[in-house]
Specification:
This protein has about 400 residues and is an alpha/beta fold. It folds into two domains: about 170 residues, Rossmann fold (3-Layer(aba) Sandwich); about 130 residues, no CATH class. The chain is built from 14 helices and twelve strands. Helix 4 crosses helix 5 and helix 5 packs across helix 7. The chain is globular and about 65 Å long. Bound molecules: adenosine-5'-triphosphate, iron/sulfur cluster and magnesium ion. The site of magnesium ion (MG) has 3 residues, from helix 1.
Amino acid sequence: MTETTIAIEQGGGPMLGVAPPEDVLLDVRDLKTYFHVMDGTVRAVDGVSFSLKRGSSIGVVGESGSGKSVTALTMMRLLDIPPAEIVDGEIWFDGRELVAMSDEDIRHIRGKDMAMIFQEPLTALNPLFTVGDQISEQIQLHMKVKKREAWDRSIEMLKTVGIPNAETRVKQYPHEMSGGMRQRVMIAMAISCEPKLIIADEPTTALDVTIQAQIMELLKSIQQRTGASLMLITHDLGVIAEMVDDVIVMYAGQVVEQGHVDEVFLDPRAPYTEGLIRSIPSVVGRGRRLKAIRGTVPSPFNLPPACRFEPRCDYPWDLCRATEPELYQVGAPERGARCHLYGPAGRGHRSPVVGTASVEGETESTEAARPDAAQVFLKSEQALEDRRQ
Ligand SMILES: Nc1ncnc2c1ncn2[C@@H]1O[C@H](COP(=O)(O)OP(=O)(O)OP(=O)(O)O)[C@@H](O)[C@H]1O
Ligand code: SF4
Ligand SMILES: [Mg+2]
């Protein structure tokens, strides 16, 4: 494939201040969210752009501290300002720009058209009220219905998310439920007002593996049934491979790779993504050592001056220490990698090992008849299981 060397960030991006086309539900443009703290400024989200079509899904992956949650919380306008500051950028959601929107207006969108499911429902649910009260309150607020109707809809929502004896459960307090049930309540609350976008931030981390799978299955079926878009944040690349259409890979507050999930996972371009994929068992192959990305995520107060991944990268050269790489188009127009290897100066330098993903027994080629990312990760789970035995 011939690589193009168009910087996505420079060439033909959306015109600032102009709403995206109707089929685009969410369009985040050059978003910058910083925290001003005692030790200095944390550039938690530093020029992040991505978009999501109506009814489709996007995954957000990246090591701890890469800015995944802060991106979502900025979208929901849930950050305390100060210490946070939305320094720059636009967030277009359903035809409206959210960064400049008043607090009053954002309240009509948050929980209604855009709903978020958090990692730990115990901190998100109020311990002093029954789950029914909490879901009903939200329904009454956004759907302008009477108390009785909101209560009945709460029961219906609990049934939708597979909670048995919903008529009884609705009167329980959060602490009377198991972690899995509480997470179902969070999902019930999130979908109660028929949102256009569901943001799920590590929705199953606190749960055991069987329940995790059930919750993910539930999310997927709800998304398919309601036609909502989904933004899924998780460390679990296997879940991303199974659940979403597109993926963005974040590192130190920036998007370092983006594209269709199969393309990104089976043919990673940014060295950082390549490192993430290499640490998955079936991708490296049985009997070979997993290769974790060396080094650690840089301190937000001491980011490398040019490419933020340079100290950990296998392919750096002078340019990487001198100039910050842009997000270059690699292949399809929406496919990008933030790496000088794909810029004008990248030719002649060693390319990352692309197309390394394989299902055992199949060839290493990423050409014809390659498996999809979900198959690869399914195999990787089996490989992990083998290792444990
Ligand atoms: N309230 C805050 N005050 C100061 N810094 C913050 C605050 N919240 C987040 N940060 C910093 O912003 C950066 C991005 O954090 P964020 O929570 O978005 O990471 P993440 O990608 O969601 O990580 P994880 O996978 O651990 O959830 C980190 O350096 C974090 O320390
Ligand atoms: S720009 Fe250079 S250091 Fe950064 S990821 Fe690419 S090759 Fe590695
Ligand atoms: Mg997070």
